[in-house]
């Protein structure tokens, strides 16, 4: 009795804090009450910056974030693909042990803020274009959307374009009008942005339709370059077989003209003209007109050819060829000259008898020959203009158009001249011709050393050997001419000066030349 029993202690625990939660729904603003699945939702405690674990909305768009302390939160939603992220929702209060419901979000589709452009692409007859073709839209920041391929009905639609101004065009195809300007408005389709094939495109530029296989060593790019020259003879020079050339369709007026005349000029060596002519996909009126105009051209060319031939004979009679005969015997001049003409982009050399750099030529006769050449060129150009009257809405500017045609016309001249002059080209002054090709260059499209590297290796090598080994036998004119010819050109193909040592030839990459 009267005793104390110590140590009977008790430790009281505070009552457990019940966590709270937040719940709500994420929906599509344009399709309520449709919920959005897989939206990512998090809660950030404002006071501490702690972020809750991420939760995903279910297939109804519902979510719930649990185990939250009693505090104030900011709710963030990461939208699923195709929707814009909403602004965070701040000041969401969570009470102890309670759920805070109704924290909902409405999301806007990104498509709802964009527009589209649609239309149809047709041929000259109004039928859907075949095969499919690409359409692209370019905004003011030069961003390209597309190309979108047309469907079997020629239709197209470019989707998800931000509001603004666009340029719509048929991608990389000059047969169609250049472009259409369109302004895109949110949630609207700008329809009826149509394109129709120009009438001129029946005859111009559809070079992609040339179907042939490359069985030789030339590349696809080289073959396409040959086709763009509108020259069947050039195709042969580029390495295509006779069968491949025969199977190459020509659907442009100038290409047909070159083919038609080239086959006649080659005496049937290229293929059956009648078979090719009948296979061309051309309107009857154009077919008839081409035949008529080509016959007129042939008659005119025959007359001019005889006149020029007469002048050539007169010029050659006055030219001293004596001591150069042995030199020329070592130069494969006719065939190489044809290659220069076909690929060197200076085809008038083939019929240009101007040798004014030679002191033995009658200047009066040269002037007469130049006049005839100008007239001959004018005849062909007038026919080209006549045949291209269908192309008043051509995509190229007038100046570019005629420059484009002119280069092709010169190819026609070159091929005619090649077959006419094969027998006597070796009697021309090769120094003057060589200087014209690689020296003056007459504003050709291909750098002169490239032309020479591709096609003139043997000719240049012979010229170098002549200069190195027979320099003393040349007169002052030839020596000065060669010195000028091989002076430094700012390219690895030339040396600063020519030296008499034979090793100079090794400085030129002749093993890679034609």
Write up this protein:
The protein is rod-shaped and about 155 Å long. Strand 10 (134-139) and strand 11 (144-149) form a beta hairpin. Strands 1, 4, 7 and 8 form a 4-stranded mixed sheet that branches. A 4-stranded antiparallel sheet has the order 3-2-5-6, with no helix packed on it. Strands 9, 12, 15 and 16 form a 4-stranded mixed sheet that branches. The protein has 3 domains: 20-111, Carboxypeptidase-like, regulatory domain (Immunoglobulin-like, Sandwich), CATH 2.60.40.1120; 114-208, Carboxypeptidase-like, regulatory domain (Immunoglobulin-like, Sandwich); 216-513, no CATH class. It is 35% helix and 17% strand. Residues 199-280, 315-366, 375-406, 408-475 and 481-514 have low confidence and may be disordered. Helix 1 runs antiparallel to helix 2 (232-238), helix 4 (253-265) runs parallel beside helix 10 (398-421) and helix 6 (284-318) runs antiparallel to helix 9 (363-387). It has helices at residues 220-228, 232-238, 242-246, 253-265, 273-279, 284-318, 325-328, 333-343, 363-387, 398-421, 430-440, 448-455, 457-469, 476-485, and strands spanning 20-28, 40-45, 55-56, 62-68, 71-78, 89-94, 99-100, 105-107, 115-122, 134-139, 144-149, 155-161, 164-170, 180-184, 189-190, 195-196. It is α/β, with parallel strands linked by helices and 514 residues long. The chain has 14 helices and 16 strands.
Brief synopsis:
Strands 1, 4, 7 and 8 form a 4-stranded mixed sheet that branches. A 4-stranded antiparallel sheet has the order 3-2-5-6, with no helix packed on it. The chain has 514 residues and is an alpha/beta fold. The chain is built from 14 helices and 16 strands.
